[in-house]
Amino acid sequence: MKYYSTNRLSPEVDLRTAVTKGLAPDRGLYMPETISELDPVFFAQLGTLTFQEMAYRVAVKFFGEDIPSEKLKEIVYETLSFNTPLVEVEPSIYSLELFHGPTLAFKDVGARFMARILAHFLSEEKQTVHVLVATSGDTGSAVANGFLGIEGIKVLVLYPKGKVSEIQEKQFVTLGQNITALEVDGSFDDCQTLVKSAFMDEELQRKMVLTSANSINVARFLPQAFYYFNAVAQLKEKHKKIVFSVPSGNFGNLTAGLIAKRMGLPVSRFIAANNSNDVVCNYLHTGVYKTKPSVQTIANAMDVGDPSNFARILDLFGHDHTWISGVMSGTSYTDGQIKESLASCYKHTGYLCDPHGAVAYRALKEQLQPDELGIFLETADPAKFTETVEEIVGKGNVPMPERLHEFMKGKKKTVEMGVEFEKFKKYLLSI
Ligand SMILES: *Cc1c(COP(=O)(O)O)cnc(C)c1O
Questions:
Q1: CB 210: neighbour CB atoms within 10 A?
Q2: Ligand 1 neighbours (beta carbon < 6 A)
Q3: Which residues have a Cβ under 8 Å from the Cβ of 340 and sit 6 or more positions away?
Q4: Ligand 1: centre distance to CA 253 (Å)
Q5: Residue bearing the CA closest to ligand 1, atom 1
Q6: Which atom of ligand 1 is nearest to the CA of 250?
């Protein structure tokens, strides 16, 4: 399969190049050249397949030509070592729980898949490959855990000292093995600058194999389509139109859903559920796309003012606003509204959402039609946001899952780093 850039100013590349480079030279995002429909037989069997089996069949459509089938199967099966159960919250509203992976957030799926794809392509490299990742919290933990124990790859997580919650920090500073956490005495932007400078430094490029694990990478983006199939497979009600409500920030998760629909999954429409960062909602309402600086909210993984995957959405629909707005609508909620919905869902149904899931739940409550059935993506375990959620539903009402507890017990181990590039470079050359 060839991959083209959404800007269409760079040559098409193969999967290996798309995965190791991440971004196209013209700064566009890579897209698969063809998105083909799955066989009707596949859909007829959907309810009888395991999550791993159905995901493998989806994966073959994208990666089958570039990765030997046994290897691809192994990668899919290892990635999906956990399930994504569909839970009925109230009549016609379901939660697709994507947080049963190692770091209790949906990013585990993309990060685990990408780590294995990268390891496959880089297995012939004689040198160790270093993955650099700057994080403001969640990405670092998903990427570090995704790569944990993978041979031939070392991960360096750069994060701003004192600016990451304790729960988030523990998920990447306690791992050891091939994961090193660099505690940077600066901001998230400083971390990102250090990473970018390393990629542009000629000497480092000559002496080391460096790569990134960016969220726009096709190997992180495409596997997110898997669980949309798994959601439909678990549905018992068959006669209603299916609506997915997706809590969105960079829009990778929602775009993967659009791809699943293109592959023939019977989805009627999507709702882009946003916090106060509403640039895509505004585009859907007005046809005009205008980026804005992001604002901080209680659903902070969605605080994005210029979502990178929007370019992929435009591309999928040939930049046709009428077509796009026929398939997805947008809605945006304030922190006050998010809290209100989280509290009322808990009170009336007993189901505890995290702040991101609560945004998507509210969108269904407001917009679902009588002939529709709604599935919202629950992207993180509420315990990852214990402080915020306890403030809404009361202390003691947010159970701490065992896996999170294990992380909290681990011992922190970091390398202290300043913001000067020369020191960072010297460190890289010394490892
Ligand atoms: C990253 C993240 C999102 C946003 O997903 P996108 O694919 O960037 O739209 C939503 N919820 C949680 C918990 C996240 O970590």
A1: 17
A2: 105, 107, 138, 247-253, 301-302, 356, 379-380
A3: none
A4: 7
A5: 301
A6: 8
> Residue 365 phi/psi, 5° resolution?
-55, -40
Q: Exposed/middle/buried for 85, CB within 10 Å: 0-12, 13-18, 19+?
A: middle
Domains of the chain: 83-104+221-398 (3.40.50.1100)
Closest-lying ligand 1 atom to the alpha carbon of residue 142: 15
pTM of the model as a whole: 0.94
**Ligand 1 centroid – CA 101 distance (Å):** 15
Q: What would the pLDDT profile of 375-429 be if each residue is shown by its tens digit? A: 999 999 999 999 999 999 999 999 999 989 888 899 999 999 999 999 999 999 9
**Do residues 290 and 348 lie in contact, with contact meaning Cβ atoms separated by under 8 Å?**
no
In the sheet with 93-97, reading across from the earlier edge strand, the strands are 86-90, 93-97, 372-378, 241-247, 269-274, 328-332
| pLDDT at site 165 | 83
- Closest ligand 1 atom number to CA of residue 251: 9
Can you give the length of the chain in residues? Answer: 431
- Rounded Cα gap, residues 52 and 77, in angstroms: 6
Q: What pLDDT does 241 receive?
A: 98
Q: Whose CA is nearest to atom 14 of ligand 1?
A: 301
Return the pLDDT at 212: 85
Residue 239 sits at φ, ψ, to 5 deg, of: -90, -10
CB-CB neighbours of 321 under 10 Å: 15
Which residues, 6 or more positions from 294, have their beta carbon under 8 angstroms from its beta carbon?
A: 277, 303, 304, 305
Task: From 108, 253, 298, 332, give the residue whose CB has the most ligand 1 atoms within 8 Å, as the site to mutate.
Answer: 253
Ligand 1 nearest atom to the CA of residue 253, by list position: 7
- Give me ligand 1 centre to Cα 299, in Å: 9
Looking at residue 422, its amino acid is E
- Closest C-alpha residue for ligand 1 atom 2: 301
